[in-house]
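Appendix B. Raw example, untouched.
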Amino acid sequence: MRVLVAAHNHPALHPGGTEIFAHDLFRAYRRAGCETLFLGATNQIHRQARPGTSFQGIGPAGDEVLLWSGHFDRFFMSQIDLYGVVPDLAELLREFRPDVVHIHHLLLLGAEFPHIVRRTLPECRIVITLHDYYPICHHDGLMVRTSGKELCHKATPDRCHACFKDIALDRFVLRESHLKALLREVDRFVAPSRFLRQRFIEWGLEEDAISVIPNGLPHRGVGARAPRISGDRPVFGYFGNLNPWKGVPVLLEAARQLIAERVPFELRVHGGAPFQSESFREEIGRLFGETAPVVQQRGPYRREDVADLIAAVDCTIVPSIWWENAPLVIQEAQALGRPVIASNIGGMAEMIEDGVNGLTVAPNDPRALASAIRRFVEDPALGRRLSANAREPDDIDTTARRYLELIEAIEPARIEAA
């Protein structure tokens, strides 16, 4: 079986959760005996164009390529380079001739990509893993209102127009129709969480067309699950990009409150703040200054170091204020036997059960987060109990097998229809 795995970037350029999982799955498909090709779309933020071709090589093996997609309509999620990118994508498909195209995002690739695949290779099976809410929500797929940080429970053209008053209401109607029409070419959708699946069903995708397959992690062996639990003061860790939606200001404000109360703890914040506004960087810079040295700004980290960094803390904190789908950092922490304090919304609420394998708190509430941290500090037995109940995530090879079983199941219907 030939499998083309496509994402909106490459983890070597932008190590986000979607890109990392897509690349891990690409390797797992190869271990399962598939002939695989990884296609990562990028733009001028990470790579400059090279005249004469849409494609650039990356990696030493020749089975990973970048698609330079500098001309892209973010509102309609549309690939508008009809004389460059679109014919080059068709040529790539004809040359590699995949049996399966597994898409992990439509950004930069374009919502037309499933249609290009179907037109070029009618019998090819098309699978999309839904990692966030971009097709539903123009606000960077967050489903958070632009005025303040109110969570959005349902997207409609009227509500979307209220968030973006400079965009006419009828354009939101067209956007929804445009995306749903192009997504009809997809054979199967996969959601890593039940929550995200339900959001897309409410948006209009067929219930029977969306399966739930949890994300998996590369197998690292056993022996790292012993709880650290410090003797003098617990150590908490944050891992991920620093941005407003990940709840970093909430976490730092909670730490400031605990420091004022003289609660003994240490917080290590791992991650950088790429592409963030000057005002946001100033805000977190001020909060880091007010909470040092209890709070340590450790900076960006490499994917291969994350296990050691998590193993060095007692508890991981995931304070996101948007409907996170399936944060890899929660799986990384649980795989190492580390409890997690997380917001009680979205897919996070499916991964962490309050009082069982972690603690959950209301999002965007520094007092609630401070209370959960204080509870962990004051009750060492709680930390040990939560650690013992950490839930081992699936390994990536198990996840790949589940995807391949799903793909095999849709083959007869597609061939018959063709």
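End of appendix B.
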